[in-house]
């Protein structure tokens, strides 16, 4: 048993070393100059549950690493956070979103509202947030066409100054969504402290909703809570027609997921807007 224990330990150690090495490699690449050409933003459309009309889209960051193909944002964003690179990357995402949205806006393509994600680490930096929000505010697109998504726990770490700054943009029309709603532990405090405009039901609830009545109850309670507070409720991770119908019957406002569309390039999203116009 001892032998076994040691070999398990050895295995574990080499796994760890691999992880650390990979982390260091990715961090090095992330910090390098070529990275700008390898990052891009995809958009995943959101639709009204009831009318199935396009209402907007969520911007999702992608890294096309030359050898490792596509690396999940969950992996490289965590590295960027640890290495102090997330402010730069987050600002780049905001610039990208603003530039795409301006193009669509100038071409009179109705994209509804474009949302993008902010890392908790970004919310901790007042200067970073100032720069980012300024960027969004200076765009020729109305603030009401943008929405920021933050997770429930992210605001916990933000300073009162940063929250006040965020609030001032929200009061001028920018949307603020609580992402992965229901998976954190401080949901209700967040709702009380921030002027939130939207709840995003986490995909884990949508996934099990048709199998487990308790999950359906959570979805239904979230919709009721959101509506009681005057908020829009969107469900993510919708993968089947049945899920979409169930969400509609539970009163959920909007939906996003592979069943409707996978995240797509800015060009594809633009063609979708073109089609809609005709
Ligand atoms: P998220 O904000 O919860 O984004 C939703 C994730 O669910 C996306 O994964 C999306 O591609 C995926 N998804 C959408 N529809 C479906 C579906 O029907 N089924 C399933 N199984 N998945 C679906 P993605 O793009 O890999 O992003 C993962 C996470 O990385 C995001 O989760 C978000 O937390 C983070 N992220 C992505 N882009 C950014 C960014 O620009 N900045 C920051 N800070 N985080 C980002
Ligand atoms: Ca999100
Ligand atoms: Ca989410
Ligand atoms: Ca998530």
Model description:
It comes from Neptunomonas phycophila. This is EAL domain-containing protein. This protein has 278 residues and is α/β, with parallel strands linked by helices. Helices cover 54% and strands 20% of the residues. The protein contains 13 helices and 10 strands. Strands 1-2-4-5-6-7-8-9 form an 8-stranded mixed β-barrel, surrounded by 4 helices. Helix 9 links the parallel strand 6 and strand 7. Helix 4 packs parallel to helix 6 and helix 6 runs parallel beside helix 8. The protein is globular, with a radius of gyration of 20 Å. It starts with a helix and ends with a helix. The N terminus is likely disordered.
Largest sheet: 8 strands, mixed, barrel
Number of helices: 13
Taking Cα atoms only, what radius of gyration do you get, to the nearest Å? 20 Å
**Percent of residues in beta strands:** 15-25%
Order of helices and strands: HHEEEHHEHHEHHEHEHHEHEEH
Give the CA-based shape.
Answer: globular
Head-to-tail CA distance between termini:
70 Å
Low-confidence stretches: 1-11
Extended strand count: 10
Oligomer: single chain
Topology:
Blueprint: H1 2-31, H2 35-38, E1 39-48, E2 54-65, E3 69-71, H3 73-82, H4 86-106, E4 113-117, H5 120-124, H6 126-138, E5 146-151, H7 154-157, H8 160-171, E6 175-181, H9 187-193, E7 198-201, H10 203-208, H11 213-228, E8 232-235, H12 241-249, E9 254-255, E10 264-265, H13 266-277
Parallel strand pairs: 2-4, 4-5, 5-6, 6-7, 7-8, 8-9
Antiparallel strand pairs: 1-2, 1-9, 1-10, 2-3
Bound molecules: ligand C2E and calcium ion (3 copies).
Domain EAL: 23-277
Protein name: EAL domain-containing protein
